[in-house]
Amino acid sequence: AYYIPYDKRVSEFENDPPLTELGKQQATDAGIRIAKMIETQGYSGCPIKFIASPLLRTLQTGSQV
Fold first, then answer.
1. Does the model's pTM come out above 0.70?
2. Alpha carbon distances (Å) from 61 to 6, 10, 21, 50
């Protein structure tokens, strides 16, 4: 897998706000819907890979479930 260590990235993001409480709830709700979709498609127990940006709110979204 291709990975750029955090300290080697080209730029830091000046505007990288955290999720709001509403955003956290929306992320949790989305995670529940994604988990149900994975289950109904017959992929329960299979490894799943999510590719996302390094922004704080993106990482927080992925960790809400």
1. no
2. 18, 23, 11, 12
The Cα–Cα gap between 18 and 57 comes to: 5
- Residue that has been written with the tokens 């590719």 in this structure: 51
Q: How far is it, in rounded angstroms, from Cα 41 to Cα 33?
A: 12
pLDDT in tens, 29-50: 999 999 999 999 999 999 988 8
- Could you tell me the CA-to-CA distances from 53 to 28, 39, 45, 58, 60 in Å, in that order? 18, 25, 25, 6, 11
Q: Where are the beta strands (DSSP E) in the chain?
A: none
